[in-house]
Design a protein that fits this description.
heterotrimer; A alpha/beta (318); B mainly alpha (309); C mainly alpha (268); B: Serine Threonine Protein Phosphatase 5, Tetratricopeptide repeat; two-stranded antiparallel sheet; C: 268 residues; mainly alpha; 0% strand
């Protein structure tokens, strides 16, 4: 079985400067493979080369070097776009068309005709959670609504591979949850999802595999559990109703005790602590337990480490 | 190595470039074919949309000098294109209104007054032949700049060369010479104009001054042409004397060949621009060829009485 | 080809709903109506002035629509990145350019039809209200169908200007494209002076350069038969035919060049 997406030594230089343009390497020798049916996250801070990668895959940019193939076909092949969906970052569409008109325009571009067009339009708009607004002109839409329209248009052709550039941006918490559910539904359907994000919690919840990028290079890739050991780093305990004596006891055992509002305290315990025993002891002194959470290595931590480790780039940014 | 489309590299534009070039060539072909039967339309009664310089100055929103430049270029192009037009539909009707417009928009536009006056005075078919309008134009220039001795000199010149009124010409030269910063040669010019009228020596002097003082090529060439004409007129006088001698002796005018022999020349005499003189077979009179840029020669001031007032 | 028509349809729908061109059409209609009032102020030449002003309004406002919508729809689309979503669909960049162009020309044609109708209404009114004696002195009847020749050539000229605008907007910013297009429009009208440039300068090299520019730059003067039509002078069918053919060929030049630039372009 061929990979859904594969790139080999994909490299993109942009000329920077007006008088004596020097090449600025936005993407450096990216080689990756995404299997069919995977949800793949391309992660990294702003300017890491995520959008450049996505644009190269959509052939909005031409590579300086290297190749990219989608569903076994080169990216220049227009026929393969029939089977793709794409959500651009900060999508803007025509101000004076309604959501329905825009989607039926796109549906027709994919070659659908007759009743098939309104059926598909209604389905994807429902899926994206757009209700009565679909007959409004797009200029009246909020950023979050436009993001939903953009998501809907990426799915109009039941794509086999979906590319999403920052799909959660501009959405409220409810919207983020809806998008997350949508991606999970796509995965269940067997669709390959390739998305870029700098928000790591999204990736943690969704991705089967990730690649982490920094300054144009891929610094790590693999299954999340492989990249992150999920090692226990400590405990975070919140307690209330603390007496002076109990406070002294806590200070002895904890790495740090931080007073919170309403007489509560946040207690940072080392991984070696046994919170069950501690609680037992403390509850005898009338202390009330509010919450207890294990602290593990997160993608966020990894992110900070790897990005900090990468050497600063020589040329100035764009 | 896979082809470009396979590797996803930028597509080659060779065919599109070839198509662009081919279509551009075709568009030139279409234009050439069209131009065989087309001239930009010029209405028989040409319209100058804005006749009033004062109005135009108001609506030019402070760009009146720029607008003056544009109208000046229009006047030059108009004059030039009319000069090249077929004689049947040549007319210079818009020249004066255009010049008025230019000088109303920019009253200090010296070139427009001085060149404009030259355009206006040129006799038909080289120009409208309106020395009166030229003088009016120069007088407006003088009103805008009372110390401009050039305007006085030019008015004198129009009287001298086109109206053959040497007394008035001398008066204007005299007045010009009294202005501050006027050149010294104006006073002697006034005196000799008054004393000798329109003899070729004075004319030559005037044109030579113009030739030497002008930094505009066009004006220089015009002066040069007039100087050549004066030289040609000297030669023609000589040749006509020979021709008359022949006619008296033989009882008939000489042919061109006989004239050359009679004058003892080695070949056909050439005018200063290198074009042979022509002999009228009926009268034997010699003059410049119509092919020469010197044609037509100016009316000889010396043989013509001063123009009536 | 279906993709081309779909893109054109979307352009048309988008731009007829935009309020800016409506404003322009309204203004032009008002101006044509006002020409009737202006004509009351001048003696004798009123029909001529109405026709002059009407045709001028038609071509100036058509020009503004062509430039501003033409630029807006491609440069703006690139600048606001809506082009990303579209080009990820099964649409080639050549289809995109051609579709945009057809949509623009369609919009322009509809706007001009509206203005033409308003223009003829004024002329019909003029024809009805004038006594026969005055009408006898006119070189051409008021609602002269021959005005349509002039208007037809204005449409062809504007189609060419739209192609210029589209060409520039494939590689430069909206503002720069607008300026370049307006500049080329002005140059295109002065262009016929270049043809006889040797009348004005004596340097042969300059005259050759001028002649080269005359043939290569868009030549818009031949599209202007407004004066002939207003004065009731003949306009030869050959000239109209050649001019339309020229428009077609030159538009093809521009669209081919625009496609060549656009298909190799990187969208950052």
């Amino acid at each position: 079985m061929t990979a859904a997406i594969e790139t080999e030594n994909l490299t993109k230089d942009f000329p920077v400067g007006f008088w004596r343009p020097r090449p600025y390497r936005a993407l450096d020798n990216l080689t990756l493979q995404v299997e069919a049916g995977e949800v793949f996250g391309l992660l990294g801070p702003n300017g890491a080369g995520k959008s450049t990668t996505l644009k190269l895959l959509m052939q909005l940019l031409y590579p300086t070097r290297g190749t990219a193939r989608i569903l076994g076909r080169p990216v220049g092949d227009v026929s393969v776009r029939q089977r793709l969906g794409f959500l651009a970052e900060n999508p803007y569409y025509y101000d004076y068309l309604t959501a329905e008109e825009l989607l039926s325009y796109f549906a027709k571009l994919f070659g659908y005709r007759g009743d098939d067009v309104p059926t598909r339009v209604t389905r994807v708009l429902d899926e994206a959670g757009l209700g009565a607004e679909r007959r409004m002109r797009l200029r009246q839409f909020s950023k979050g609504m436009l993001q939903r329209v953009a998501l809907a248009q990426a799915l109009i052709n039941d794509p086999e591979v979906v590319f999403l550039d920052e799909p959660m941006s501009g959405l409220d918490p409810l919207g983020r949850k809806q998008v997350r559910d949508l991606i999970l539904r796509l995965r269940a359907r067997g669709c390959t999802v390739f998305f870029c994000s700098h928000i790591l919690s999204d990736a943690e919840a969704l991705c089967s595999r990730v690649a982490i990028m920094a300054q144009g290079k891929m610094v790590a890739s693999g299954k999340l559990v492989e990249i992150l050991a999920f090692e226990l780093k400590g405990w975070e305990l919140v307690v209330a109703n603390v007496t002076g004596e109990a406070r002294a006891e806590l200070d002895k055992r904890a790495r740090q005790v931080t007073p919170l509002a309403d007489g509560r305290f946040m207690v940072d315990l080392p991984p070696t602590a046994d919170p069950a025993r501690l609680m037992h002891e403390l509850s005898g002194r009338g202390i009330e337990l509010v919450s207890l959470n294990p602290v593990r290595d997160t993608l966020e931590d990894y992110f900070v480490q790897t990005v900090a480790a990468a050497a600063p780039r020589q040329t100035g940014g764009v | 190595m896979p082809p470009a489309i396979e590797s996803g590299l930028r597509p080659s534009n060779r065919w599109l470039h070839a198509a662009t070039a081919g279509l551009l060539a075709l568009s030139i072909g279409v234009q050439v074919a069209r131009d065989l039967g087309w001239q930009p339309y010029q209405p028989t009664t040409p319209v100058l949309w804005f006749q009033s310089g004062a109005l135009l100055k108001k609506i030019s929103l402070g760009f009146d000098n720029l607008l003056a430049d544009i109208y000046w270029m229009r006047a030059v192009v108009y004059y030039g294109s009319q000069r090249r037009a077929d004689e049947s539909d040549r007319n210079f009707d818009l020249l004066d209104p255009l010049l008025t417009l230019v000088t109303t928009l920019d009253p200090q536009f010296k070139v427009a007054y001085r060149f404009g006056a030259i355009f206006l005075t040129e006799a038909y078919p080289s120009g409208p032949g309106r020395p009166d309008r030229a003088i009016a134009l120069l007088e407006r220039g003088l009103a805008a700049n009372p110390n401009g001795w050039e305007y006085l000199h030019d008015i004198g010149f129009v009287h001298y060369w086109w109206l053959h009124d040497y007394r008035l010409a001398a008066e204007w030269f005299e007045k010009a010479g009294q202005l501050p910063r006027a050149p010294e040669w104006l006073a002697p010019l006034a005196a000799s104009t008054l004393a000798q009228g329109g003899d070729r020596q004075s004319s030559r002097f005037l044109w030579r001054q113009l030739f030497e003082s002008s930094d505009a090529d066009w004006l220089k060439r015009n002066a040069q042409r007039s100087l050549f004409q004066l030289d040609a007129m000297d030669v023609i006088d000589q040749l006509n004397l020979v021709s008359q001698r022949f006619t008296r002796r033989e009882g008939r005018p000489p042919t061109g060949r006989e004239l050359i022999l009679e004058a003892g020349l080695r070949g056909a005499p050439l005018d200063p621009t290198g074009v042979p003189y022509v002999t009228d077979p009926a009268t034997g009179r010699v003059t410049v060829s119509k092919k020469s840029v010197l044609w037509p020669l100016p009316t000889e001031p010396a043989v013509q009485p001063p123009a009536p007032k | 080809m279906r993709a081309v028509f779909l893109v054109a349809g979307a352009v048309f729908k988008e731009s007829v709903r935009d309020r800016v061109p409506y404003g322009m059409v309204m203004f032009a209609v008002l101006m044509i109506a006002a020409s009737y009032l202006i004509s009351q102020l001048t003696a004798g030449q009123d029909l001529k002035i109405i026709k002059d002003l009407g045709l001028a309004a038609l071509s100036i406002f058509g020009l503004l629509i062509a430039v501003f919508i033409g630029i807006g729809l491609v440069s703006k689309e690139v600048e606001k990145k809506s082009v990303f979503g579209l080009l990820a669909k099964p649409v080639t960049r050549a289809q995109f350019i051609l579709g945009k162009y057809l949509g623009l020309v369609l919009t322009l044609a509809v706007n001009l039809v509206v203005m033409t109708v308003a223009f003829y209404l004024v002329l019909f009114y003029m024809d009805m209200t004038m006594p026969a004696m005055v009408k006898a002195g006119w070189p051409a009847p008021a609602p002269d169908p021959r005005l349509l020749i002039a208007i037809g050539l204005i449409v062809a000229e504007l189609a060419l200007v739209t192609a210029v605008a589209l060409f520039f907007s494939t590689f430069s910013s909206p503002l720069l494209s607008a300026l370049l297009t307006l500049g080329l429009w002005v140059a295109g009208h002065f262009n016929s002076d270049l043809r006889r440039f040797e009348n004005v300068v004596d340097v042969p090299a300059a005259a050759w350069v001028a002649r080269g520019l005359y043939y290569v730059l868009p030549n818009l003067a031949p599209f202007n038969v407004k004066a002939e039509v207003v004065y009731g002078m003949p306009v030869s069918a050959t000239h109209v035919g050649y001019t339309l053919l020229y428009a077609l060929v030159y538009i093809s030049v521009l669209l081919t060049a625009a496609t060549a630039i656009f298909r190799r372009r990187d969208f950052k």
